[in-house]
Design goal:
By secondary structure, this protein is α+β, with helices and mostly antiparallel strands. It has a single domain, classed as Multidrug-efflux Transporter Regulator, Chain: A, Domain 2 (Orthogonal Bundle), CATH 1.10.1660. It is 46% helix and 13% strand. It has helices spanning 14-21, 25-32, 53-67, and strands spanning 11-13, 42-43, 49-52. β2 (42-43) and β3 form a beta hairpin. The chain is globular.
């Protein structure tokens, strides 16, 4: 069964992203240092990070096209 993509208008936290991708937070922060290795991240004024469903989906599609 294919995983459901998030609603484009919803936002997920870094923890939710890591859980969904089954990666550690350390891996997530390493990916953020490499251009294009992580989805676009929105930093809120309180310093927390959010990833929109639209950015997550675009990032996944971009990964698929690079490998195919």
């Amino acid at each position: 069964m294919a995983a459901k993509l998030p609603d484009p208008d919803d936002f997920m936290t870094a923890d939710e992203f890591c859980a969904r991708m089954r990666i550690s937070k350390d891996t997530f922060y390493k990916w953020r240092q490499i251009p294009g290795a992580a989805p676009v991240v929105h930093k809120l004024r309180n310093g927390s990070l959010r990833i929109s469903g639209a950015d997550f989906t675009a990032w996944l599609l971009d990964l698929r096209s690079e490998v195919a």
